[in-house]
């Protein structure tokens, strides 16, 4: 929600700037330009944590502390601090500047090294860890003997299904990030900042966030059940004509 709120404020500033030429440059502008890479990095770390939990259940079921609630409460805090530290490099390099054509602060697309740093730490590390976890689980399951009990096989099949759902969601996010990488490559070659770079980028980001919400509902049975109950509860059911007639007769 915080990430979507910041992106929405960027779009509002762009519209107001183009219509009325407002200047939104301020001390808070740099802070707002620094927050989106941190938040998107934490979103990807959340998928890593889900995959890591399944890894612990499948490969290391006997190590209880790897499956404790306390560990998965501490992990996001550690990842948040680590992401803030890594992303702070763009502040020390003064890479976050006010973009006069877009009317908000962010790293210019022509600042190739800072943009690569954001891309690498925003989702590059997370995608690499996710790939390693998936490969590790696949290798482990293939090495298992065929004499496993039915309960263990069912549990492992369920865990692998969840891992695949996580990878589908992350693959969806990566595919929608391809336009931004395309602009980055073009800027690297031409050394020019194109006017529509960030509008196109944030448009696909908005689609990806909406897609993540929908996929999360579809792939989470408990959440899907809650949503379906809400929909069914709010649905207006027309009364049968025979039922209406019987009610009138009784009156």
- The fraction of residues assigned to DSSP E strands is under 5%
| SS summary, helix count | 10
| Overall average residue pLDDT | 79
- Sheet bearing the most strands, described? 2 strands, antiparallel
The secondary-structure class comes to mainly alpha
Q: Looking across the biggest beta sheet, what order are the strands in? A: 1-2
The topology string of helices and strands comes to: HHHHEEHHHHHH
CATH level 4 superfamily: Rhodopsin 7-helix transmembrane proteins
CATH fold group: Rhopdopsin 7-helix transmembrane proteins
CATH class annotation = Mainly Alpha
Measured as a percent range, the helix fraction is over 70%
Distance N terminus to C terminus? Answer: 52 Å
Q: Low-confidence parts lasting 5 or more residues at pLDDT below 50?
A: none
What's the structural domain tally? 1
Q: Count of DSSP E strands?
A: 2
CATH architecture: Up-down Bundle
Round the Cα radius of gyration to an integer and report it: 24 Å
Q: Categorize the overall geometry.
A: globular
Structure characterization notes:
By secondary structure, this protein is mostly helical. It has one domain: Rhodopsin 7-helix transmembrane proteins (Rhopdopsin 7-helix transmembrane proteins, Up-down Bundle), CATH 1.20.1070.10. Helix content is about 75%, strand content about 0%. It contains 10 helices and 2 strands; from the N terminus they run H-H-H-H-E-E-H-H-H-H-H-H. The chain has a two-stranded antiparallel ribbon. A hairpin with a 4-residue loop joins strand 1 and strand 2. Helix 1 packs antiparallel against helix 2, helix 2 packs antiparallel against helix 3 and helix 8 crosses helix 9. Keywords: Membrane, Transmembrane, Transmembrane helix. This is G-protein coupled receptors family 1 profile domain-containing protein.
